[in-house]
Design brief:
Number of strands: 23
Number of helices: 21
Enzyme class: ligase
Domain Glutamine amidotransferase: 336-570
Protein name: CTP synthase
CATH topology of the largest domain: Rossmann fold
CATH architecture of the largest domain: 3-Layer(aba) Sandwich
Strand order of the largest sheet: 13-12-14-15-23-22-21-18-19
Keywords: ATP-binding, Glutamine amidotransferase, Ligase, Nucleotide-binding, Pyrimidine biosynthesis, Signal
Structural class: alpha/beta
Radius of gyration: 26 Å
Pfam families: CTP_synth_N, GATase
CATH class of the largest domain: Alpha Beta
CATH superfamily of the largest domain: P-loop containing nucleotide triphosphate hydrolases
Shape: globular
Amino acid sequence: FFFFFCSFSLILILILQNPVGLVFAPMPKFVVVSGGVVSGIGKGITASSIGLLLRESGLTITCIKIDPYLNIDAGTMSPYEHGEVYVLDDGGEVDLDLGNYERFLDVTLTRDHNITTGKIYDLVLKQERKGSFLGKTVQVVPHITGAIQDWISRVSHIPVDGSGKIPDICIIELGGTVGDIESMIFLEALRQFEFRVGRDNFCHIHVTLVPVVGAVGEQKSKPAQHSVKELRAAGLLPNMIVCRSTEPLNRAAKEKISMFGMVPSNHVFSVHDVENIYQVPRMLLDQNLPALVLSTLRINIMPPVSVPIWDSIAAKASEEMPEVSIGIVGKYTGLSDSYISVTKALQFAAMDSNRTLKIVWVDAEHLERPSKRRHKHSEQAKTAWKSLSSVDGILCPGGFGDRGVEGKILAAKYARENNIPFLGICLGLQVAVIEFGRNVLNMKGANSAEFDPDTKFPLVVFMPEISPNEMGGNMRLGSRVTRLKSDSVIFQLYDEKKEIYERHRHRYEVNTELIGDFEKNGMIFTGQDELGVRMEVIEIPALKFFVGVQFHPEFKSRPYRPSPPFCGLIRAAAKLPLIRDRSSSLGDMLPADSVLSPEDGTVDETIDLSEHFSSIVLNPVSGSGVSCGSSSSSSSDTSSS
């Protein structure tokens, strides 16, 4: 009786101390992906592909990205520093690799899935100020390393796939390069974490570079050897080594890396350059990687035999189809990763419409009218305008600051006057409003208060609830509801949903005091927030396709569920019908992870669009195919920043 009484009391105490039930929750197993030799080697795609293969084995997967910089998050960094700032449903501004995880695994991550040195130190220092360490000396070891481990343990239990189930496996990608001073604390934390969770629950995969040197094309394994040596010096011994190279890894290099890396030769994987990243999961599957990971983690399930959906996506991405060209008029065109979600969303939409995407990069600054300061760049201006005039459609993505804004305004003017399909995202919507005000409503000097605080016509204004004194995390962020008008293009693109949820990232908005003049002259505001006070979508019905959205639809686009606004742009640019044949229930019959093919359905070229639009004018076009389904659910997944 005494034994059972003590046991029951202990269980009761544990329940009271752990109201979320983590005491009884199964501990996820962990796969750590590190990188060596150089940064940008492909750790994110490797981690995403491993997660995909394990998910195909029937496991639930979550991902954590560790970034060893001191910033709290990626929100205040220039895209030229680390690529785009990816925005999550909960408003987290995170590294672009979390976008890869969401696109590959179709999960919804949180801001806590991105760990930075800044977040960890901020947490520990706040605890120190509260007296949480009981007068002890706060040190890197054990307090910082302990905070890292506790963070990983906590976040690994968060359900991310909508099922409410705690993930079976957590994939941890360690950013940076092994040997960097800033990464050392995380390597030490992971060394301790391996001991904490046990070897049967910890699998370490190291991604390294095998360069090809000389005219004979000899593969050199020495950088990979030194990379593993650095890892071993930190107390970590990888279970597997993934070798990145331009060509498949030859046997001699593989055997040498196996010997010096102290792993079996069948644990050394070749990941060479391929046509598209969607071929990587198949490449790893063919080398038996998922089976070896499952064996290392002592998980007794069968690995996937194939990944048919991703094989079809990879084949589609490489298939020769009619070309459609889209000009991206941006401020950060010097680094394609600055717009990686935009380019992926365009690619998914093009694949859905059976088109091969050609992206034409146009530097917005080069479009601006010549001045004395820019006279020497006149040749660049000619090239930029020639490029813009050659495309089938124009996309103006988001951005901050006044650099290149006048060029974006001119691009919107060119699209409107020449009836070129146009999609503006965030700042792209705002420049379209400014252009319309200047050139249609004769509001001379009209501008955004962001660029000209003294303008006579402030068409875009600072949002009143946002603090002007703070930058980091101080915007309208995350998933928000937008209500659509039923007689609009955007309503049809979203499968006639009256409410959609998309992710936002902005601190300026359209001035609602002036929208009456716009609607009288042909620019209609077809989407508002739940209160009807914020303008979310603009359209010009008289044109083939001229749409601007204040939200960022690219962040919810998936390979098998492309974003509706991007589908609209691609289909308008390709001269395809915008509207799916409503007599077909194809979209409802297909599973969520299916890919539409040309044989899946057709559109009646003689369909009468007047029954769908009461105030929209569309030019009849030829062609067939189906339109995309909505990427946004109407379920209440919004959050407040």
